[in-house]
Each structure stands twice: as C-alpha cells, then as structure tokens.
Amino acid sequence: MLKVENLKASIEGKQILNGVNLSVNPGEIHAIMGPNGSGKSTLASVLAGRDSYQVTEGSISFLNQDLLEMAPEDRAREGLFLAFQYPVEIPGVSTTNFLKTAVNQIREHRGQEALDAVTFLKLIKEKMKLVEIDNSLLSRALNDGFSGGEKKRNEIFQMAVLEPRLAILDETDSGLDIDALRIVANGVNTLRNKDNATIVVTHYQRLLDYIIPDFVHVLYNGRIVKSGTKELAKKLEEKGYDWIRENETTIAG
Amino acid sequence: MSKDDQILEELTSSEYKYGFETAIDADEAPKGLNEDIIRFISAKKEEPEWMLEWRLNAFEKWKTLKEPKWPNVKYPEINYQDIIYYSAIKQKATPSNLDEVDPELIETFKKLGISLEEQKRLTGVAVDAVLDSVSVATTFKDKLGELGIIFCSFSEAVKEHPELVKKYMGSVVPVNDNYFAALNSAVFSDGSFAYIPKGVRCPMELSTYFRINAANTGQFERTLIIAEEGSYVSYLEGCTAPMRDENQLHAAIVEIYAAKDAEVKYSTVQNWYPGNKEGKGGIYNFVTKRGICAGSGSKISWTQVETGSAITWKYPSCILKGDNSVGEFYSVAVTNNMQQADTGTKMIHIGKNTKSRIVSKGVSAGKSQNSYRGLVQVMPRAENARNFSQCDSLLMGDKCGAHTFPYIETGNKSAQIEHEATTSKIGEDQIFYCNQRGIGTEDAVALIVNGYCKEVLNQLPMEFAVEAQKLLALTLEGSVG
Ligand SMILES: Nc1ncnc2c1ncn2[C@@H]1O[C@H](COP(=O)(O)OP(=O)(O)OP(=O)(O)O)[C@@H](O)[C@H]1O
Ligand SMILES: [Mg+2]
Q: What is the ipTM of this complex?
C-alpha cells in the first residue's frame, strides 16, 4: 500500500533524508527505530505532506497514487494518519467538534453523507471505550493544557475514530505511563485488520512487546540501514546504536 | 513564499455575498445638508414640531464640531454636501401586515436569509427591519403588546410615545457628544425603539435588521432601548449593504437606559460591505453606542461581531452610575484586505462596587489594520470598582497590523483593574494539524478563528452565534492558501 523509493528530502537547505526505501503491505506493522535526529519525524512529516520539507528526489506511492502530488488534507482523506510526536494545541476548539469536522470532510471526499449528531456521538462513545479516554477531556479545547500523556492518548483516540488505512505513530509511547501504554497498544491491536497497516516510530523495545511488529527498520543518517524482525529491536536494546554506527562505517569504508 | 503568506494572498479572494441591489422606487431628498433638508426629512416623516426643533438644534451643534482625527484609520475627506440624507422606499401606505409589503422587499430579506414570514413562524424573533430609512415591517408586535412591551420603529415612537422619546432621547448620547452623533441627531432617518416595563422579562429576542440599499445614501438610524426596573431584554442587530464603488456613510446612535436591577443584552453582527480587495467602496461605519446603568444592580452587556465595513469606528460603552451595576463588552473584530477597524469600549465607573469586563478579540488578515481602543475610568466616588480587560490579537500573515490602546484613569485608590493582552499569529502548525486530519485549509482557518473567538461567540444567542461563525469563515475565506 505504501512504497517509498530512494526518498531524499531537506529542510531549509539541509538534507535530512538521504534515500529512504520502504515498502509496507496491508495488514503489516512496521517499527522504525533510530537515534535522535536521524530523520524519523522528518520521514513521517514528508509522508503526511508538511510543506516546509522539500522532496528533492525519489517517489512515494500510496494505494497506487502518487502521494507527493496530493495535498496534505487529501492524503488524510485517502486514509493516511499521523499521530504527532508533538500534538498541536487548538484553543477554543473541542476535540469532539474538531473530529466532527474532520470526519465529515473525509466522508464528503468519499462521496458519503455527513454524519448527523446522534450517529457521530455514538461513534465517539464506542471509540472512547476502546482507548479508555474520558469524556471531560474531549469536551475541553483540543490538546489545550493536556498533559503529555493525555495528548498522546488523544492522538490514538482520533486514530480510532478516523480508522485510517495507514497510521504512522511518531513516538506515541513516549510520555505514557505503563497503563496508558497498554491501553494505546491494545487500541492499535484492536483496530488492526488485514486491510490496514501501521508504522510505529519508537525508541523503546518495550512498546514492541505489546505491538508486535512484522518488521523493524533502523533509520540512521537519513537512510534505512538495517531491517529485520522484532529480534532486531532486542539486539538494538542490548547493543545500542554504536553497534549500527560501527556497521555503518564498515559498510561505508 | 511561506504557506502562511500564500494562504493570505488567497484569502483575499473572497467576495461579499450580500451585494445585490433591490430595484424599488426610492423617494429621495436632494444631495447635501442644510436646514431645508432637515425640514424636508422631518416633513416627510410627518414629525411633530418638537422633533423638528430638536433636529435643527442638533444641526447647529454639528456645525460647531469637528470630525475626530484621533482614530487609527485613514480615509479620504468626506464631502458632507455630496450625500443624500433621506431615501424612503415608495409604498402606498404603511403596511398593516406582511402581505401589504412590497414583494421585492420581501425578496431582499429572503436573500439576506431573514424571511420575515419564516422568522415569524419558526424562530420567535420579533424583527423590525430598517431598509434604508423607513422601518418596513414589525412582527410580533401584538404578542409583545400584551406584556406592555413597546417595540416599534423610531418614527412611530415619536408619534405614539412622545413622552418617552422626549425623556430619554439624547439623555445617554447628548446631541453634541461627538461629530457623528450630532450629525445623526440632525438627520436620523429611522431606527428601532424598545420599551420594557417594570418587572417584565421580554420573552423573545428583539431583532433589527439594517441594510443600506440606495446609492449615495448615508444611513443614520437611531435606536433607543429603555428597560424599566427589574426588566430584562435581549436585543439583536444585524446589518448588510449592497456592493458599490463609492463609499457610503453610516452614522448611527444606540442609546440604552437600564433602571434599577434591569438587564439589557445588546448583540450586533455587523457585516456591512467592506469594499473590494483594493479597498474601493465599502461602508464608513461611525457609530456611537452607549448605555447607562442608571439604577443600582443594573447590567448592560454589549456583544459585537464586526466583520464588515471599510472603516469601523465604534466604542459601545457603559456608564455605571448605579451602585453595584455591571457593564460588559465582548467583541470580535475581523478585518481583511484593506479594512480598517478602530473599536473598543469605555467603561465609566461612577457608582460603588461597579464591575466591568472587557473581552476583545481582534483578527487581522490581508493588509488590514485592526485597533482596540478602550477606556476604563474610575470616578472618585466609585468605591471598590473592578475591571477586567482581556485584549487578544490574532494576525494572519505579515501585511496586516494589530494595535492596542488601553487607557486607564483611576480616581479612587480602592479600584482593582486588571489588563491582559496577547498577540499571536495563526500557526502553520495548527493548520497542518487540521490538514492532517482531513480538514481543508479554509475550514481549518475558520475552525481556529472560531475557537479563538469562542468566549465572545458564546455570549450570542444560539441562532446568531451560528450565523456569526459562518460570517467569520466568509470574511476570512481565501486568506490562507
Ligand atoms: N527547521 C529545521 N531546520 C534545520 N534542521 C532541522 C529543522 N527541522 C529538523 N531539523 C533537523 O533534522 C534532523 C532530523 O530531525 P527529526 O525530527 O526527523 O529527527 P528524529 O529522528 O525524529 O529524532 P527524535 O528521535 O529526537 O524525535 C535533526 O538533526 C533536526 O535538527
Ligand atoms: Mg522525532
């Protein structure tokens, strides 16, 4: 469903992605790991269509369409979802109202009728249970004054409501307490089916005990330098990125 | 070009939705202003002698006054002799019900989305519509009449309730208060009059719809609201005007009188034609609105959503004379393209334990200029006066300007005055976040701006709030790409 080929991207003239190749099929879960500043969030942003990044080379196809040609909102409407590493606050706009606008614009894009208030509320209630999120949080202004963990949980709640084809979770586990981590993982696993796929960006092997990935990739200096199964994550946890670094230099040398 | 800039460039492509002209015969005065014109207006309106005297006196005062130059707005010199001061729509006789109203007129109202018939049946809002200068139809009068509430056109009040008009007209905004107030007092065409008797809670929102129709006519409406002891009323005012190349002058007066324990809520949604992208045409809106909390425990609350006009000059104010009285001002002012707004409030604390609250939200886009100007004045005998002011500015792009001019004068040491001000830019982050959830940029801007203005919009009656939200979106359409 997603095919990234030789993707190079820069921000403010500085090249961050140096030729990323990644292929994701329906039903799969991929984990991306890598040291701070290696370009994980950059990759996520480029996939979502943030226009401060310039794609200088390569291609991305998503559900057989040229993703790079699509506006960010159209990518979302076609089923691409990004759970932000740093969710944005929107004062005065409740999560419920925000999601209602989103759901109905997505539906319009797909030629479906807008959901009426009753049906929408039913949907919200159902998803609330799934991620065990509190109603009071949803009626507050979006992310405004939310704790770090609450913001992350709210991202997963939004994902549950929007039911994307491809979800990219950028360090959603950071800042979550043990219970919240389990709840978020449970949400991801429940929503998983043969038609959708998930990319989880994480620093911690711990998350991968709950969300079991089919593939683990290591992003290093803007390139995927190693791919493997979840064993790779374990190995990284043991050996740290120095191990990759040594490997890299041997390859380079 | 950054995304914000692009968004701004494109936002400026929005067109004014209410720009159409009604082809109704108008009965007009010749251009210009002199005693004869004033006599003409008064005669046309079949006014009593005292009213004419009052106008002529105001005209004398006006000649001695100068147009204010302190607002932070720029416009070419207005030639007051080049304006038509009276334009009445020709009608056979005063209509006694809607069926007798010119169908074209009804059409106009329908285009404005305020079908009188619909409103009558569905919303329970009593509408006094002022198209140009004559009040056309007043609904719900009978029902209100049973409660002793008077809601009619100003002209009618002059004829039917002269004792009330004589007592209160000019008592809150004196004839010589300012240049535009004096002008209005001399030539005012029509407007609305509301009287709520002692202890009566007005069961419906009273609503007036103003619209400037004929070319070259200034609209000078005048509104007077009197709330007797312990009464309550919520009053709504909405305005639109057709598109024209020339600028049109609008100089209105609103006076509110609140007796002991009375409460008046006055809400305005103003979307006069703002002119085109280059700043050609549009309404000059120079309005004096003031209320007096005359009795103890009374309350006056102004809520305004200002999206239109080429120039807005407007400071709805409260004179807190009664002890324990409360004044509130909630404002959203949105400017785009070449619009200029200089708006705010004055809270004059005279009585003991008086409280005022000011919440002002400015949104500027395009090359517009948006100023908040507010005065909080505490008189020596106003023991324990309190004020809280919050003035926020939101900028879209870097070609517009936001300015804040808070003035505080305290004559009593016990006063507690708090002022908070913020300026922010609409965030690319916020827009991208919305985009990522499938929300298009235009809707994202509308959502963010509405959120930002929420505290003010919450003050509006429900139907009006929905309308106001749509207007905000419409005004900012195309301001982000
Ligand atoms: N606006 C910018 N200007 C210059 N450099 C930038 C800009 N934004 C990001 N970068 C740089 O791009 C590199 C990649 O950042 P990115 O956020 O993708 O890293 P990451 O892998 O997600 O790291 P982390 O694990 O800390 O989240 C970093 O070196 C960062 O400093
Ligand atoms: Mg990151």
A: 0.95
